[in-house]
Amino acid sequence: MKILSKTGNELVMLAMKTEAASKGDYLIIEDEKAKRKMVVQIYDEEYLSSQSLIEDMVKDEVVNASSTENLHDPLNISNLSKMIRDARVFRAKIRAAIDPSNKLSNDVSWLPSRVYSSVGRLKISELDLLIQRRGLFPIPIGKAGVDNEDFEIYAEDLDGKLNIITGKKESGKSHLSKLLVKRLVQYGAFVIVFDLNNEYGGLAWNNDGSPSSIQEQVMVLEPGNSLKFSLDYCGKAAMSNMLKNALDMPAASLREFFRIWDWLENKQMLEIRALGNAITTSNINELVRDALISRYHVIQSSRLFLDNGNAEGLSFEKVISEKYKGTAIMISMGKATPVVRRMIVELVLSKIVDLLEKVMIPPIFIFAEEAHLYIRDTYWEDIVTRMRHFGIYTTFITNQPDAIGDGIYRQVDNIFLFNFTSDADLDKISRVSLADTDTIRSIVKTLPQRHCLSIGKVVCDLPIIVKIAAAEVLTLGETKKFFTRNNNNR
Ligand SMILES: Nc1ncnc2c1ncn2[C@@H]1O[C@H](COP(=O)(O)OP(=O)(O)OP(=O)(O)O)[C@@H](O)[C@H]1O
Ligand SMILES: [Mg+2]
Questions:
Q1: Quick one: 348 and 396 in the same domain?
Q2: Protein residue whose Cα sits closest to atom 16 of ligand 1
Q3: Residue 477 Cβ < 6 Å to ligand 1
Q4: What is the pTM of this model?
């Protein structure tokens, strides 16, 4: 490979067909005379095209089509001309430079010699050494680089961070997120997953049906069954958030609701049936009563609250203190209605913030699938700004990048980007993300299935394409089908 030109932080290089390299590969350019090196990443590949070359090809085709005679070519010119026609041009972004004392620097203003520079391929392990990317809690997620080396990111780089996993439908987003959840739990972290397809429960099982290594640490909560709270545990704050934000309760009714709540609490009768009785019998304005009754019915039919005062409801601090080994709490929201989903999320987030404020639980990782379906807009900002300080570290997983506001993209630390073909989605992502537009547009559009471009802290801001590994755990969540390909029953 030879350097053709440099503009800004971009290099254009010429390569013959035999010098294979692909988009995303890292190259190291060593200028022997200047004793300096440059690390560049290929982001686009095209044919070497000039007008005369194209005219030549057209002439050749015309000659071939009109004559059947073998052309006399003693100097083997045609072979050379074939090589030229197959020559390619790589466009690369300069990612870093290495100065004569072998230190990494970001001074990329110098020009490497076209004559004395050698271009070599850089393995991901060599790149890691150069940028000193290391950590104590590796999360292997697949293979990367020219030699298909095992690739890992580090849990430390997800800790305290905001992450986004995005890509088109069926590209493998949930799969990656399961790999991350599994490792985080193995390292003792506490994870809550808002699971829209009821698929994360599969983490408890291996593909062959045997229990997985983290089975004891997986807890699947179904609204109405294992996900039930006592009113007392929820407390006024979480309840008020739920009524206001998920059930649109007006302020006047809210005041009345909590007057009844206080009264029941004083009489130690705070439970769902007593609440219903009190609402129908107490002396309140009819309009307010209507408002309360309609909300009460939703609360009752959601089955999120215990109706028997003696039964024990869910308590996060208890789950976390019992399972000191790290736990994944999967909240299966697949079958819940949109209102119930919103209620669950309000209750859970309010309660978690409350517990974190009181330092009763350690920081929590939250994985939210398609969060725009159940988290109100203002909450997004809240989660990434305020809640982050309390210790809620979120990973959003979505196939609609435009559902996430710009304010959030601006604060994001890591993005795992799967294939996108739609220009609108690509536009959105490339406008707001941590890497440059050219890299994203060109690489992501042609990413093969199950490959993702990792950007951000996990890769020390050097974008890397990773072929995501298959999981050893059971993969649930495939769409139920009516017609199957291998239907032997017919
Ligand atoms: N790296 C991989 N190796 C093997 N199988 C994979 C891999 N990634 C994804 N799959 C499989 O491909 C299918 C789709 O993956 P997944 O459910 O993760 O996609 P998704 O992007 O979450 O889709 P959706 O947008 O529908 O939620 C699943 O059956 C999953 O098991
Ligand atoms: Mg999914």
A1: yes
A2: 172
A3: yes
A4: 0.91
